[in-house]
TrEMBL record:
<dbReference type="InterPro" id="IPR017900">
    <property type="entry name" value="4Fe4S_Fe_S_CS"/>
</dbReference>
<dbReference type="Pfam" id="PF13237">
    <property type="entry name" value="Fer4_10"/>
</dbReference>
<dbReference type="GO" id="GO:0051539">
    <property type="term" value="F:4 iron, 4 sulfur cluster binding"/>
</dbReference>
<protein>
    <recommendedName>
        <fullName>Ferredoxin</fullName>
    </recommendedName>
</protein>
<dbReference type="InterPro" id="IPR050157">
    <property type="entry name" value="PSI_iron-sulfur_center"/>
</dbReference>
<dbReference type="InterPro" id="IPR047964">
    <property type="entry name" value="EFR1-like"/>
</dbReference>
<keyword id="KW-0411">Iron-sulfur</keyword>
<comment type="function">
    <text>Ferredoxins are iron-sulfur proteins that transfer electrons in a wide variety of metabolic reactions.</text>
</comment>
<feature type="domain" description="4Fe-4S ferredoxin-type">
    <location>
        <begin position="237"/>
        <end position="267"/>
    </location>
</feature>
<dbReference type="InterPro" id="IPR017896">
    <property type="entry name" value="4Fe4S_Fe-S-bd"/>
</dbReference>
<keyword id="KW-0479">Metal-binding</keyword>
<dbReference type="GO" id="GO:0046872">
    <property type="term" value="F:metal ion binding"/>
</dbReference>
<keyword id="KW-0408">Iron</keyword>
<feature type="domain" description="4Fe-4S ferredoxin-type">
    <location>
        <begin position="207"/>
        <end position="236"/>
    </location>
</feature>
<keyword id="KW-0004">4Fe-4S</keyword>
Amino acid sequence: MKAAILEFSPSNNTNRVGELLKTKLEQNNITVQLVNITGNKDYFLTNNKQDFLQKTINKHDILFIGSPVYAHHLQYHVKDLIKNLPRPVNGWSKIAVPFVTYGGINSGIALDEAGKLLQKSGRIVVAGIKVSSSHHMTKAFMKEEYNKDQLEDKLLFTIGELVKRISLADLASLKDNSKYLKYQDLMIYLKADLIFREKIWHKKMYPKIAINDNQCIKCGKCVKVCPVCHLEQNKDKSIIRNMNSECIHCFNCIFECSQKAITPVGNLERAEKFMKSMIKKGKEVPDTCLYPKL
Ligand SMILES: Cc1cc2nc3c(=O)[nH]c(=O)nc-3n(C[C@H](O)[C@H](O)[C@H](O)COP(=O)(O)O)c2cc1C
Ligand code: SF4
Ligand code: SF4
């Protein structure tokens, strides 16, 4: 059996899950191609993403799609990625499994969105996983990174169960289980649709980044860690922004810049207050989970 794992992972949590999944699949004699589009210029700066995918992804029997949860939704680049998937013919499998990682606040409706989009692309969604992970960006405005200590055992067990289901099954006989990805109650759907509108949050709510040219030593490190190729260096190595690929507020560049030339701006107090109010609501139960449930 051959598997393809396609993922986007600005702060590496989703990639970590993708790598663990790859290892487990390989231990079960399944060949794996893992493609991480994070920071890939050939993907982000092309207008023909389907062509990129067609050329990059090998023939496979099962497709895994990994994404972070942003503002209760499937990160919008992963929505685009799924919309650009070639039809499931000529070596592209009909069988799909989405997985999402979230920062312990709320996994929102991301897994359900992934399932629906994969179904719309002609695929059979046999399972899905949500994984509670660290919330890296909170380091920019809170004393501690939220939800950073996660139990490895639970994640390994969950991935192991998924791989067991797949490797023991006759793939052709697997049925669509996307209805099980709709695990949230109506209130979360309403909040996701009416309040947490991801692109509006990027425009108006998340703290922005400011670049101080005088402090910049032109090392280029921030460019390397920008997951969407928003940051570039011009001829004299000064940092410029590519407005064809907008900032998604992961804050990798802030954490990477040793000179503190990149800083968050905006109402950081409001950001901290908001995050604290979300944290107060308590953690989602179950935190990490395979659907359909065991
Ligand atoms: C802009 C932004 C929005 C986020 N929104 C949510 C959210 O709504 N709920 C949540 O629990 N975590 C949220 N997170 C945290 C991420 O989902 C979490 O850290 C995820 O594991 C990141 O995956 P990655 O490391 O693969 O990028 C958000 C992070 C960022 C940067
Ligand atoms: S990491 Fe900081 S110092 Fe280096 S190029 Fe980027 S902004 Fe300049
Ligand atoms: S510019 Fe910085 S905060 Fe924005 S997406 Fe790139 S690395 Fe993340």
